[in-house]
């Protein structure tokens, strides 16, 4: 081949540093990544910066050493007890929502008439949110509410059961908003498992119990862990219902409430930030433990179209 | 011809790494205008990577691509795909699902900002070329696989591209349609005077379509040659293996006289033709196609070249011929094709023309994988 | 075997004792749910209701009272304004980012992905309080702009996490095909990707809308008296119970509920119910 190469000046410039271009190409870096910039900028400015600002604030109390806010929180049982109060509400609520969802979703995977209607009805309490649920619970479960009336008419109780303005009011509110959430998630995880896997197990002689135990459950377990985490996050940040249907001065004084009061009633932003950080840390620890367990499970394809 | 027309396209040491792993290494290839080139190899060999690098869809991590045109040589690997003026047909067709057949085909012409009348004329012409007149206003989802394939081809050639790239375009079609489309593609290539680079893992397809074939393995070029060259003289035993030499046996060279070699191993003693300088005692690979193994019933042909007694084990019906698996007395399984009606258990004698038995060198530490089926005790 | 698969599948839903148990549990849940919502609804239309099964009489006057006393016209106006702004901005920021996350691998992708996940995983109060403090510092809090900014924090990641799997299921070879046809990046987005992404963007937008209208904590922390959304105004009127008639609060709750239900009905035309809950992408690709 005769090499009469005539390079145009512009192209010589383009070819200036082929090494750099080749290296960037290998790492997958080009101008398209700029599309990511607004979102990253946004997360940094509106999430990471305030978060770090709060972290710094929590170590900079008005008086005392850097750890004074944390000391104030942990040395006061009225404050530090909120951790336990919050966990006592959020963990059982999340657990019950997830565990109750599994058998129901297992029965209801596949298609049947009215499935879409049922899911729509279940979505309603999630979209209503905790504030409206709280208002409804006050009316419905209150001493003169329909629930107590029915029980008394049936003769099951003599005096109205106290179900609101205490632990149970908040707990019910968490179940009402949390159960549909967990159920729909688990239903979608279940429908993501290829049904032929179970049929294959059936041809190998497994009854439905064994099929559930050895096929469905192991494939569902990672989804269960994820669902539990999300249900826990939802329950853990309980705030309006703790005030409205709970006993905000006592047994349902949750972390979020303590943080809110520190900030907006005592105007102690350092303490408020410290409580917020504790709240974040406790939540991440719980999630971390669950995800650690999850990471030991099989998390590959479940064969379905989920 | 449109802009970017070339007389020659030169790939110079083209390479692509993904996060430290080489997918394509040092590809040198010159494509002349009007050629039909097939990139051939097993899955993961780098053939699609090479095609995408050529298209500009994948930036190079080494080397460069040059285009020799009427006004000198021009570097094109720095251009984005839309500026190279190539057309491409994808394995999954990649038709725009929200556009009708007509709009799919006219899309590229509109991108070139051609006059409306010109767009309409060339689109209609392309639709006629692939015989889709009555489907022009349908959406891709309403078409069969073969029809979608035609749309994809029309969309690529309507721009009169200086180079058409095809990425396993027939692999999603059924056997009958595949044969029809194969000749359709060759016909279009000739009648439109296209230059085509065609990626496939099907050696038969590549052999029947291409003027020249490039065989890749593990990202490296193994051989570049015509169909004839690849069929009769694979460059190494890997290529031979891929090109249909199903009988590949690891043996020792016991006698060498020029290219005339005698090899021994696995209970076989065979005379063959060396493809590279070989010395006595070398570990080598003997390769022969099933159709080059001749078979005689009982001891027929026992005085022929490379006569080896064997017993028929598995017989597969393939029309006029049978695909037969036999086992030698020493337990080595061999494949052959014959028009004789053999049955399992038949005793036969195999012969092979030493010209057709190719002997390849074996790299140090390299081994031929053991046959899939172990000997039945 | 005589029985086919289909009848067996149907029998499983209504037949065995365990099925009855499960249907019973679901029914119990739904009955109580209906009680919770119904109690609010009935109360809002009742004249007086003390200790009886139903109110003494029915009236619609509480709605007029609520509308007037709580200044609901303004509140609804603010709610709409804030939610629509949040929807538009989060889609504009989120979709391009989702595109990159769906299509590309680059160094640090996992970190970026985790950073987008965090605002969804964190309790809103945890970052809401520092965020409100920062917004006050820069003069954003106490007005609608602060509420919008605060609500964007979970919305943008939500759009990203909803859109990423949606974009992934669009074959990348369609984009390659457009490029090979000579389309520039602009033409690619306007002519090819845009139309294909519309359903996904619509779904993401409606989900963000539902979430923003229902978002209590962040709005509560950043809103001033003139920038309350419906749910926050409802909370204030509830926690100040005793000052206003209970029924007026109920009427307001019903107004909020119907707003949400309308949104829900609209939403369900575009998305399936599960998506309203979450769209979690399992294990981000390395």
TrEMBL record, chain B:
Keywords: ATP-binding, Nucleotide-binding, Transport. The keyword Nuclease does not apply. GO terms for molecular function: ATP binding. The keyword RNA-binding does not apply. Residues 9-243 form the ABC transporter domain. Transmembrane segments: none annotated. It holds the Pfam family ABC_tran. PANTHER family: SPERMIDINE/PUTRESCINE IMPORT ATP-BINDING PROTEIN POTA, SPERMIDINE_PUTRESCINE IMPORT ATP-BINDING PROTEIN POTA. This is ABC transporter ATP-binding protein. It comes from Pseudonocardia xinjiangensis.
Automatic annotation (TrEMBL), chain C:
The keyword Nucleotide-binding does not apply. InterPro entries: MetI-like, MetI-like_sf. Belongs to the binding-protein-dependent transport system permease family. The keyword Cytoplasm does not apply. Signal peptide: none annotated. It is found in: Cell inner membrane; Cell membrane. Residues 76-267 form the ABC transmembrane type-1 domain. This is ABC transporter permease subunit. Keywords: Cell inner membrane, Cell membrane, Membrane, Transmembrane, Transmembrane helix, Transport. The chain crosses the membrane at residues 20-50, 70-99, 111-136, 148-167, 188-210, 248-271. It comes from the Bacteria. Its main location: membrane. It holds the Pfam family BPD_transp_1. It is a multi-pass membrane protein. It comes from Pseudonocardia xinjiangensis.
